[in-house]
Amino acid sequence: MMAFEEGKGDFSEGLADTINMNILEGNETISLESGFERLESIVKALEQKDLPLEKALEYFKVGVALVQHCSTVLNQAEKQMQVLLEDPDGQLQYQPVSYDVKG
Amino acid sequence: MPKIWSVSELVGQIGQVLQERKDFQNCWISGELSNFKNHRASGHWYFTLKDEFSSLKGVMFKSRAERVRFVPSDGMKVIVRGNLRIYDREGTIQFYAEEMEPSGLGQLYLAFEQLKKKLAEEGLFEQERKKKIPAYPRRIGIVTSPTGAVIRDIINVMGRRHPKMPWLLAPAAVQGEAAPQEIAQAIARLNRSEAVDVIIIGRGGGSLEELWAFNTEIVARSIAASRIPIISAVGHETDVTISDYVADLRAPTPSAAAELAVPILIDLEFQIEQFRARLRSGLEAQIERKRQHLAGIANKGPLRDPFWRIDQNRQRLDTLHMRLQEGMTRFVNEKNGILKLLAAKLDLLSPLTILGRGYSLAYDEEGKLLRSAAHVELQDQIYVQLSEGRLSCKVTEKEIK
C-alpha cells in the first residue's frame, strides 16, 4: 500500500481546506469513489487556481499517488463469485460458486 | 298534510343521499358483465353488472376506459371501482366506474392497491428517501433465485461491462409461498454482511400472481429498511410492483439493473488516465503561469533595461549643467550692464572732471584737502591740483570769511 503521510496536518490552511490531502485515512483504504472525487478537486485546483508552487507540487504529488492508488484498486479487483448463506445459528457463510455463462 | 315532491326534487334528493354515503363513493363491486357496449362515437362504455339476484347499470367514461388493460365482454367476472350516482334523466341508480379488473386478479389487484396506498401514505415511496446508487461499487449484491435466468442475465451483463466486478448472491425463491420471507431475509443478510455497495433484486417476467412476492409488505419493508441502495428489477418493463416503488431505483429488466449498477471497466481506466493527464497538464499550467508572471516582472521597469535609471540620471545632470551655464552667463551679463552704468555715473562725479571745468583743489602739506582758510597759517606750504598739473604755493595772505 502506498504510504503518503507527509501531507498530514500541514494542509489544514488555505486551499487545502477543501481537499483531503491524505490518501490514507487511518487504516481505511480509499474507495474508488472518494479517490475519484479527490482527484477531481485536486485537478480542478491545479487547472483553475493560481497556487503557490510548493502547493501545486504537493497537489501534484498527492494526485499522482491517488491515480496510482485508484489504478491499483482497479487492477487488484478480482472477479469473485460468492453465495451468501446463513447457518442455523445465524452466522453468515460465504461460499464460492461458479456459473457458466457465455460472454 | 304530507309533502308532495316534484319528481326532479325527489330524484335530486336521492342523488344527494347517495353522495353522502361515503361507502358508496370510491367503492369496489364485483359482478358479471352483461349488455356491454362500447359506444363508438363517444368512447364511453355502458354495461350492466349483475349477480344471481340483482343487477346494476354501469358507465365508464372514455378517459377511464382507455386505461383498462383488458377487453371486457359479456359474461366476464369483473371487479370495478367507482362511485354510485343517480342518473337524473331516468331516475336510475348507476355505477360510474373509474377502474375495472378481471375478477380473478381482482383480489390481488385490490391488495396491491391497498398496500400501495398504505405505504405511499407512510412516505415509503418519497423521492427524498431514495439512496444514491454508488457510481463505483466495490461489489454487487444480488437477490434472486440461484437457478433462474435472472442471475445469468446479470452475470452476462457484468462480464461484458466489468469482467473483474466481484459479486455476492443472496439466494431467495422469487415465487411461491416462501418467496416473500426469503427475499426479505436475503436483503437483511446482505445488509448484515456489509460486503456489497449496491443490491439488485430481480426476477423475470410473469403473471401478477407469479410476481406477487414483490408486492408483499414484508418485502417492501425490507427494501425500505436496507441501508444499502437497492435496484429493483422485477418482471418486464410494463410490470410495476410495490418493490419497484420502494426501491432506490427501478430498472425495467434485470439486465438493465446490471447496466445501472456496474460501471464499465474501460471507462474507469480511461477516467484514471484522464486524471493522470490532467494532473500533468495542470501542474504544467501552474508552472507556465509562474513563468509568465516572471516574464511579466522581467519585462517591466528596471529589470528590462538596467541602464535606464543611469541614463535618466545622466540626462538630468546634463539639463542641470546647461541651466547652470545659462544662469551664470545671464548673471555675468547683468552685472556687466550695471558696471557700465556705474562707471558712467562715477565718471560724472570724478573730481578730475570738475577740475576740467576750471576748478582746482588745495591740499595741505600732509595731503589733506583744504576746505577753510582757517586751517592754514601764513607761510605754510600748500599744493594746488589743477586739471593739468600741480602747483606748490606759499600762503602770503589769508582772509577768513
TrEMBL record, chain B:
GO terms for cellular component: cytoplasm; exodeoxyribonuclease VII complex. InterPro entries: Exonuc_VII_L, Exonuc_VII_lsu_C, OB-fold_nuc-bd_dom. One of its GO terms (molecular function) is nucleic acid binding. Its EC number is 3.1.11.6. Residues 124-336 form the Exonuclease VII large subunit C-terminal domain. The keyword Amino-acid biosynthesis does not apply. It is an enzyme of class 3 (hydrolase). It is found in: Cytoplasm. GO terms for biological process: DNA catabolic process. CDD domains: ExoVII_LU_OBF. Keywords: Cytoplasm, Exonuclease, Hydrolase, Nuclease. It comes from the Bacteria. Residues 5-101 form the OB-fold nucleic acid binding domain. This is Exodeoxyribonuclease 7 large subunit. It comes from Desulfosporosinus acidiphilus (strain DSM 22704 / JCM 16185 / SJ4).
